Amino acid sequence: MKLKRDVRREQMLDVAMEIVRNQGADELTLGTLAAKAGVSRPIAYEHFSTRAGLLLALFKRLEENYVHWLRSALRKAPTELAAVADVISQAYFECLAQFGPEALAISAALKGTKEMAAQQRLMLNVYVDLMYDALRPLSDLEDEHFRPVCVGLLGAAEALASETQAGSISQQTATSVLTSLIAKAVADRPGKSF
């Protein structure tokens, strides 16, 4: 039975994720994907063109799931700074835990490619916009400082995620620390000297 194009693509992405999970990102090629997914090589190439295209499609899928998850969590959050900070932190680390080391393996396999740099830049802007929209009403910081604060908080989240993935800190500790950093950064008052 012939599957619709978008259904076939999703099925192949599911198989590709299994390959990364079970064998590592280095083992993921379009040929391996075609064989495991039960499709011809031309079909795999038609959907993804290159190995980098396949890896990027997997990365985008993970990122889109996180954005969806965070948006859903924020819609249900109370409009208090501590609650919103906690929702952002929990969503970040729960999503990371759900996707496990596969996300880091995919990201590492794409390091240095133009496509990955462009995707990371795009997603940074999406994440910053989400944080900005959720936290802006809860802060007295001036606009010129607020967006860079969100960028810095994302950098802190990535550093904590790296430590969590390495097993240096627990997910619970990372979530607690990020929640605290968000709350303190957003509650900070303009003109405060350090």
Automatic annotation (TrEMBL):
Classification via PANTHER family: HTH-TYPE TRANSCRIPTIONAL REGULATOR YJDC, TRANSCRIPTIONAL REGULATORY PROTEIN
In the UniProt record, the signal sequence range is: none
Protein name listed in UniProt: TetR family transcriptional regulator
UniProt keyword list? DNA-binding, Transcription, Transcription regulation
Q: Does the keyword Transcription apply?
A: yes
Database matches in SUPFAM superfamilies: Homeodomain-like (SSF46689)
Q: Which organism is it from?
A: Shinella kummerowiae
Domain (HTH tetR-type) spans 6-66
Q: Name one GO molecular function term.
A: DNA binding
